[in-house]
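User: Hey, my collaborator sent me this sequence without any context and asked if I could get a structure. I don't really work with proteins. Can you help?
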Amino acid sequence: MVSSDMFWNIGHKITGHDLKGSLGMGYRKFRAFFGTSPQVCVIFWDRLSTRRPTNSTPEHLLWGLMLLKQYNIESVNATLVGVTNKTFRKWSMIFIRLLANLSVLDWEKRFENAPRGTSTFVSLDGTDFRIMEPSAFDPKWYSHKFHGPGLRYEIGICILTGHIVWAHGGLPCGEWPDLRLARDAFIHRLQPDEKVVADKGYQDQHYFENPGGDQRKKRILARHETVNGRIKQFCCMKDRFRHALFLHPCFFHSVVNLTQLMIENGEPMFAIDT
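Assistant: No problem. I've predicted the 3D structure and written it out in structure-token form, which is a compact way to encode the shape of the chain:
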């Protein structure tokens, strides 16, 4: 049976940390290489039990996490783990796809422990990610947030729990402003009269409540930025995406699923009502 100690030992063969050395330094190194804790690695490994190849090992999961977290060029990662580029590419991508396809987010959990009478359960925000400039320039890719080409996604967070309950997108930033993206799928999942807290980019009072001078709503959106920041701690989401564009949603959903499992397991978001 795979344990957190097993991931700890395997991970530090890659990081080069002396297992007899500082425990705190060991955790920092593990996090710097793989983006999460050995405990969350075990959770992922167990949840993938019926999906992962029978000849896969915990080390292969760590390779996928290392690609998400560090996003080094392939030859660097392959050298770090002592395999060929082809072997590293094969197993890291297998596990990134498996992570992306896990059912981690639960839209219905936005109602969990919600007070009676409320009709606002979720905050929504769009976030942009850098991509390589397409060979033929097209303004549809332009993001005003970093003045370059990018893909836009939206993330929905339960106001009460701080859990991620929605993630959608992967569309050209210039062609898909926040409101258009929300109208593509998100609003069709809302109940009648359900409202959503969002910033001024969502100008549709039928569905969205902008904060104005409401300090609680401002705090809700500030927490949302914290979640966006956690996602961009993974260099594949912070740096310019070098892989084929069709793979970006796969990397994105892997990171979102990982971020949500971390929120559920020892790294919660700050509460809005304290």
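In plain terms: The mean pLDDT is 93. You can pass these tokens on to your collaborator as they are.
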